[in-house]
Amino acid sequence: MSRSKSSNQWLKEHFDDQFVKQSQESGFRARSAYKLIEIAEKFKLFNGLQAVVDLGAAPGGWCQVVKAKAPKTELVIGLDLLPIEPIEGVEFIQGDFTEDAVYEQLLRLLGNRKIDLVLSDMAPNLSGMSAMDQPRSMLLAEMALEFCQQALQPGGAHVVKLFQGEGFDQHMQNLRQLFNKAVIYKPKSSRPRSREVFAVATGYK
Ligand SMILES: C[S@@+](CC[C@H](N)C(=O)[O-])C[C@H]1O[C@@H](n2cnc3c(N)ncnc32)[C@H](O)[C@@H]1O
Q: Which CATH architecture has domain 30-204?
């Protein structure tokens, strides 16, 4: 297929997509908002939520979902490489989560406060070459898990985007060691042909 044909097809699929339509109507900035809505409802992640960190937060869809569905949450911090338009009640850090200085900035913002939920929808810019994309995405997941170990309170939860491939099974094992339960979940709103899935880990030990 020619490039213009395939990009036309992508645009048609995008605008026919029920979740794109719904997010435009409801004011969510990204279609991905529906993935978190589905995950949070299924795993009851927002019950009694007090503090949450959202890694890879731009353009802000997941932070909007937290504010809309769990409005009593006291602390919501989003972090991304890209700038994010402000959302009331959400603090943003712009920077690369894999850089020490940015990681330290996040820890400083938290101070002594422990959090209930670490979200990570981070994904590297995909090159289409699995040999490069897979290790990059696993590194982001591993670093998010390291952050959980520093910042989550016992009983806390973690949602992380993963791509099936090398390192995936080991990562699920690591999650199962640190949490009471860790399952793989593919929301209906995640495009079927995308290799992405979400690991949902609850009951941080
Ligand atoms: C799929 S988007 C997130 C969408 C978001 N959950 C929402 O609903 O609006 C993935 C994001 O991860 C971010 N990202 C990738 N690598 C990152 C890194 N090393 N540090 C911070 N953010 C990163 C990208 O800039 C991108 O905005």
A: 3-Layer(aba) Sandwich (3.40)
Which residue is closest in CA terms to ligand 1's atom 11?
A: 56
Q: Which of 161, 181, 188, 205 is catalytic?
A: 161
**Strand duo 51-55 + 90-94: pairing:** unpaired
Domain boundaries, the chain: 30-204
Q: Is the CB of 59 within 6 Å of ligand 1? A: yes
5 catalytic residue (yes or no): no
Question: Which of helix, strand or coil describes residue 176?
Answer: helix
Encode pLDDT of 61-110 as tens digits: 999 999 999 999 999 999 999 999 999 999 999 999 999 999 999 999 99
Which residues on adjacent β-strands are paired with residue 159? Answer: 119, 200
**What is the torsional sign of CA 143, 44, 93, 20?**
positive
